[in-house]
Amino acid sequence: MNERKKAYNRERSVNQFLLIIITIMDLFLFFGYFSDYSKGNIGLGFLMAVELTVLVSMIADYVVFLRQRDSKIFKHVSVTGYMIVYAIALLGAQNDLVFAIVFPLTVIYILYFDYKLILRIAVVYSLITVVDLVYLAAVKQTLASGAELNSTSLLVQGATVIVYLIVLCGTTKISNHNNDDKISDINEEKEKSHQLLDDVLKVAQAVRDNSAKAEEYINILTQNVDTTAQALGGISEGNSHNAESIEKQTVMTENIHGMIARTKEMSDQMLELAKQSMVAVDEGQRTMDTLQEQSGKMQTANGEVVSCVKQLIENAREVDEITEQIFAISSQTNLLALNASIESARAGEAGRGFAVVAEEIRVLADETRKLTENIQKIVQQLRLNADAAKNTVDNVMDSSREEHVLIESANEQFSGIGGRMGDLNENVGEIYGKIEEILQSNNAIVDSINQISAVSQEVSANTQQAVELGEDTSRQARQAQERMDELLQTVEMIEKYM
């Protein structure tokens, strides 16, 4: 039933797809030729022939498909109608490319895997194409479009259609052959699967019979093991009561031993931390001494810097006074040069050489005045920078004095911490000695309790081992029984394939 449904769906889907493509092609042809007629490219008779053929073939296709969607004759009806349409369209065409409508539709028929059908399609379409070429060459003596007859165009049209149809036949034949080979391989694998299933069923039957017998033996073994385990359990329970009190004392003593050991470890850590703290305090003390010494040196250096800045300010003031004197001298020189120029002008030709000298003196006086003004600007800027440097150094001096005070305070605090750390180190050492004595005493108690409980533990361990062995054997027997049950269920599941 399932195979029949698959065949129906496969045939129906191919018919449906083919009908859709045919409908699209017929609609293109119908409206395309109607458009050519409206433009005057074709006559009314040819239009009616094409349109009527398209409508009749489309109606026949839909009638056959809707009556039985998986119809075997649908492919024959559809290809016959399309052949007629192709023949009429090709023989009365006004376009050189009408032969191309053979390509999109014929390739769909490969989906039917019917080589004979493809061969008939190829033969009929080839004949139609050859007839059209003979008609163009012998009767019309022009191409379909009315252009001059061209042997190359005729050869391309014929070769394209015929080669395409040959390829279509070859592809269908090779594809069908490959599908037959695959189906043959599938059938062989199916036969092997049937043979394998028969062998599995035989093995399953043998397993079923042996599993039933093994399950009986396991049930007997489980009962015997349970009885033995109950007896050993009674013995173990009586011995456990005797060793229970000793075991509790051992556990409590071990707990005490663990707490003492942890306390000892903490004491070791405290002692180590105390030593490290002493070393850190000593290093801090030395560092503070170094900082105090460096602070003193810094204060001395800052004092020297203050003296240098003050001297720089004084030098700048002196330079400023000198530049003022130079500025006055240059002004007087300029005035003398001007007077000399006037006197030389009065002297006439005799004073011309003196006028040149006076002019040079005036130029030098002007340059001296400009340079003096530049020096004054630089000196003023230098005085401003010196004042700023003095203020900065004063602030540094104040900060250095405060830092020195803080360093002295920190040094005193480190000294106090060092003294207290020494006392703490001594106290920790005494605590470590007491804990060592307590640990030795507790070790002696633990050894005594261990010796007392050794014999009782040995007896209890042997009995417990026997009980555990019996329980383990019983558990394994139950697990084996569960596995046998699962095996029987598996065999019952296989039986449904018999």
Task: List the defining traits of the structure above.
498 residues, mainly alpha
Would you mind describing this structure in some detail?
The chain is built from 7 helices and no strands. It is an all-alpha fold. The longest helix is centred in the middle third of the chain and has 197 residues. The chain is flat, with a radius of gyration of 61 Å. The mean pLDDT is about 80.
What secondary-structure arrangement, pairings included, does this model have?
Elements: H1 2-38, H2 44-67, H3 74-91, H4 102-106, H5 115-140, H6 151-347, H7 352-495
Q: What is the radius of gyration?
A: 61 Å
Instruction: Spell the H/E element sequence.
Output: HHHHHHH
Distance between the termini: 21 Å
Structural class: mainly alpha
Chain oligomer state: single chain
Low-confidence stretches: none
User: Helix amount, in percent?
Assistant: over 70%
**Share in β-strands:** under 5%
Major sheet size, sense and barrel closure: none
Q: Count of DSSP helices? A: 7
On the 0 to 100 scale, the average pLDDT is 78
Strand tally is 0
Brief characterization of the structure:
91% of the residues lie in helices and 0% in strands. The chain is mainly alpha-helical. The radius of gyration is 61 Å and the shape is flat.
